[in-house]
Amino acid sequence: MIVATPCTNLVAQLQGSDTSEQLFLLNNQFKKDATRFEFTPKEELYWKELKRSKQSDKSNAGIIFQSLDNLQYVSGRVEEGLKAEAEVKQREEALAIERERGKTKGGRDDMNDLFGGGAEILLIQNGVNVFHIIASNSDKDEGTACRISGRVRVNKVKGDSVVITPAKGVDNLLAHFDGLFGAGMHGKNRVDTTNLSHRIEKLNFGTSIRGLLTPLAGTEQISLEGADEYRYFLKIVPTRIFHHGVFGGSTMTYQYSVTKTHKKVFDRRGHIHPAIVIHYEFAALVIEVHQLHLSLFQLLIRLCSMVGGIFACSSIMNSVFTRAFCLAGFQRLTKTSSNNDDSIHRRIIET
């Protein structure tokens, strides 16, 4: 996924039933790389081909889960091309960031170095003591977009979700307070300038199948105002495919359906904040797919049945046509015989 927001101003995390320690370990598996949201010429061609492959299948639009024969695939060079172009943009952006850091390296003071480029202090008072919460201001925004990737182990628990939100640390907390108590509480409001436009190249559960088009592949959302909330509700069904052969075995894969919602955050006083939320829920059932192969004996039986059916049908048709021809010939013969009898009778009378 590529989000049009710098990685230093973006938080990607799991929310669910895990403990904080487990969530901390899982969140570290998300990889964030600075990149550009704009397409390169080659990347745009690959993306258009992915969109065409996604939109070509209209016959199964109303089917939630597709059979194996109806699954859609895209050429492997499209996935490889998108990945290669993304890596090129990441390297170019990393070089640009290094050059920018070199220019501004001499402008920091000791306090900024202490807190990593700036700090914000939030004071919370409970009437007796004052608690000081100090969090990093997370440096200057680096890059123009962020590419989020990685593999994360998730639990099959209802209500878990992946949440991508702007700002982090104190910024995120103050933005939440701004939504509860009104805007203007936090002077440096990063949420107003955040753009949650995003593109999803691929999102799959379980073993990745090369070229397989998942429901979220090719998704593109452009936020004009920047303050938008995108939610994706995924219904996941485990599917076990059994293989026949010398080694046999089975493969567990997951297919899912998706429902999308989009809300615009016009009023900061409401309890809605800009975010990209992916809710996922695993179904309680498992679909098993068995591959059936015909043996030579079964093939011969089916061939004999086909030949016997053709012979029986031809015999019936032959009998019907023969009977029809016989009836037609008998009527013609009877009519000819009656005409001959009348002529003989007339001759006898004349005589």
TrEMBL record:
List GO terms (cellular component aspect). COPII-coated ER to Golgi transport vesicle; endoplasmic reticulum; membrane
Coiled coil spans? none
Q: Which InterPro entries match?
A: Erv, Erv_C
GO biological process annotations for this chain's record? endoplasmic reticulum to Golgi vesicle-mediated transport; retrograde vesicle-mediated transport, Golgi to endoplasmic reticulum
Annotated Endoplasmic reticulum vesicle transporter C-terminal domain ranges read 138-317
Q: Which residues form the signal peptide?
A: none
- PANTHER family linked to this entry: ENDOPLASMIC RETICULUM-GOLGI INTERMEDIATE COMPARTMENT PROTEIN (PTHR10984), ENDOPLASMIC RETICULUM-GOLGI INTERMEDIATE COMPARTMENT PROTEIN 2 (PTHR10984:SF30)
This one is known as Endoplasmic reticulum-Golgi intermediate compartment protein 2
Q: Give the originating organism.
A: Anisakis pegreffii
Q: Which gene encodes it?
A: ergic2
